[in-house]
Specification:
By secondary structure, the chain is an all-alpha fold. It has two helices and no strands.
Length: about 100
Protein backbone atom coordinates (compact mmCIF):
# COMPACT_ATOMS: atom_id res chain seq x y z
CA UNK A 1 0.00 0.00 0.00
CA UNK A 2 1.42 3.37 -0.98
CA UNK A 3 0.43 6.80 0.25
CA UNK A 4 -0.86 7.77 -3.20
CA UNK A 5 -3.52 5.02 -3.11
CA UNK A 6 -4.95 5.96 0.30
CA UNK A 7 -8.35 7.48 -0.30
CA UNK A 8 -9.60 8.16 3.21
CA UNK A 9 -8.21 9.97 6.20
CA UNK A 10 -9.23 9.44 9.80
CA UNK A 11 -11.35 12.58 9.60
CA UNK A 12 -13.08 11.34 6.42
CA UNK A 13 -14.16 8.22 8.29
CA UNK A 14 -15.09 10.12 11.43
CA UNK A 15 -17.19 12.73 9.65
CA UNK A 16 -18.94 10.37 7.22
CA UNK A 17 -22.73 10.66 7.38
CA UNK A 18 -24.92 7.94 5.96
CA UNK A 19 -28.38 8.52 4.59
CA UNK A 20 -31.16 7.19 6.77
CA UNK A 21 -34.01 5.07 5.57
CA UNK A 22 -36.85 3.12 7.11
CA UNK A 23 -35.05 -0.18 6.83
CA UNK A 24 -31.57 1.21 7.39
CA UNK A 25 -28.80 -0.06 9.61
CA UNK A 26 -28.69 0.52 13.34
CA UNK A 27 -26.90 3.85 13.69
CA UNK A 28 -25.11 2.84 16.91
CA UNK A 29 -23.74 -0.35 15.31
CA UNK A 30 -22.41 1.63 12.35
CA UNK A 31 -20.83 4.23 14.65
CA UNK A 32 -19.16 1.55 16.80
CA UNK A 33 -17.81 -0.20 13.74
CA UNK A 34 -16.48 3.07 12.30
CA UNK A 35 -14.79 3.80 15.64
CA UNK A 36 -12.93 0.50 15.37
CA UNK A 37 -11.94 1.29 11.78
CA UNK A 38 -10.65 4.71 12.85
CA UNK A 39 -8.53 3.17 15.62
CA UNK A 40 -7.05 0.60 13.21
CA UNK A 41 -6.46 3.25 10.58
CA UNK A 42 -4.59 5.45 13.07
CA UNK A 43 -2.49 2.45 14.17
CA UNK A 44 -1.61 1.63 10.55
CA UNK A 45 -0.72 5.26 9.84
CA UNK A 46 1.57 5.40 12.89
CA UNK A 47 3.22 2.10 11.94
CA UNK A 48 3.83 3.30 8.38
CA UNK A 49 5.43 6.51 9.65
CA UNK A 50 7.58 4.58 12.11
CA UNK A 51 8.77 2.26 9.33
CA UNK A 52 9.52 5.21 7.04
CA UNK A 53 11.69 6.80 9.72
CA UNK A 54 13.45 3.50 10.38
CA UNK A 55 14.04 3.07 6.66
CA UNK A 56 15.58 6.56 6.44
CA UNK A 57 17.88 5.78 9.39
CA UNK A 58 19.01 2.57 7.69
CA UNK A 59 19.66 4.41 4.42
CA UNK A 60 21.75 7.05 6.19
CA UNK A 61 23.60 4.36 8.13
CA UNK A 62 24.39 2.50 4.90
CA UNK A 63 25.60 5.71 3.24
CA UNK A 64 27.94 6.40 6.16
CA UNK A 65 29.23 2.81 6.14
CA UNK A 66 29.82 2.90 2.40
CA UNK A 67 31.60 6.24 2.67
CA UNK A 68 33.81 5.01 5.51
CA UNK A 69 34.72 1.85 3.62
CA UNK A 70 35.59 3.70 0.42
CA UNK A 71 37.75 6.18 2.35
CA UNK A 72 39.40 3.57 4.58
CA UNK A 73 40.29 1.08 1.85
CA UNK A 74 42.77 3.29 -0.07
CA UNK A 75 44.41 4.29 3.23
CA UNK A 76 44.87 0.63 4.19
CA UNK A 77 46.33 -0.13 0.77
CA UNK A 78 48.71 2.81 1.05
CA UNK A 79 49.89 1.64 4.48
CA UNK A 80 50.45 -1.91 3.19
CA UNK A 81 52.42 -0.64 0.20
CA UNK A 82 54.52 1.61 2.40
CA UNK A 83 55.34 -1.27 4.78
CA UNK A 84 56.16 -3.56 1.86
CA UNK A 85 58.47 -0.94 0.42
CA UNK A 86 60.28 -0.54 3.74
CA UNK A 87 60.63 -4.32 4.04
CA UNK A 88 62.05 -4.58 0.53
CA UNK A 89 64.54 -1.84 1.28
CA UNK A 90 65.62 -3.61 4.45
CA UNK A 91 65.95 -7.06 2.79
CA UNK A 92 67.48 -6.00 -0.51
CA UNK A 93 69.58 -3.31 1.10
CA UNK A 94 71.19 -5.94 3.32
CA UNK A 95 71.84 -8.27 0.38
CA UNK A 96 73.51 -5.46 -1.57
CA UNK A 97 75.74 -4.63 1.40
CA UNK A 98 76.67 -8.34 1.86
CA UNK A 99 77.53 -8.81 -1.81
CA UNK A 100 79.77 -5.73 -1.81
CA UNK A 101 81.87 -7.13 1.04
Amino acid sequence: MTVNKVQLTVNDILEKDFKRSMRGYNEEDVDQFLDIIIQDYEAFTQEIEKLRQENERFKKSMEKTTTRQSVATPQVNYDVLKRLSNLEKAVFGQKNQESEM
